[in-house]
Amino acid sequence: MDLFGNMTLNAVQIIQLMLAPAVMINACGLLLLGINNKYSLVVNRIRLLNEEKRRLMLKIGEKAPTTDDNVRLESIAHQIKALTYRARLVRNTVLCYTTSVALFVTTSLILGVSSVLSLGKLNFLIITTFLLGMTFVFIGIVFAGLETKKGYDIISYEVKAHE
Predict the structure, then answer these.
(1) Tens of pLDDT along 50-87?
(2) Residue 111: how many CB atoms within 10 A of its CB?
(3) Neighbour count for residue 160 (Cβ, 10 Å)
(4) Is position 8 within any domain?
(5) Distance of CA 121 to the CA centre of its chain
(6) Is the residue at 12 inside a domain?
(7) 106 occurs within a structural domain
(8) What are the phi and psi torsion angles at 118 (to 5°)?
């Protein structure tokens, strides 16, 4: 499969071809920035809930637990379990976006090498790595969507538990 036919590309055209993966690297960087903020929030929330659970357990150890204490402990346990699942979704999102960046960088490098050395045989590899990068972006977006839904489910549970 010869993507460019027999035409010879000049330096400007080669750079233009290498920019498509670079734009995707930039887009993935923005996605990573947003999801890393979510990851920090989820981890901090787990830590806060664990700290609250420890304080509540100490309080219960000193006297008989009230119904409110038991309800809160159950709520905390449920939220920690759900937040741990949510953290896994965020981790998977980050891994997909990071893999995408690696594939887009690889696409640019192969494109550059192919153009400089006039290796038209690498065109299939160029297209394949770029499409794999886009696939990982899509999978990352699916994980991000699932994570957002899980975040809503956790908040809904907490609100219902305290009504």
Answers:
(1) 999 999 888 888 788 788 888 888 889 998 999 999 99
(2) 24
(3) 9
(4) no
(5) 33
(6) no
(7) yes
(8) 55, 50
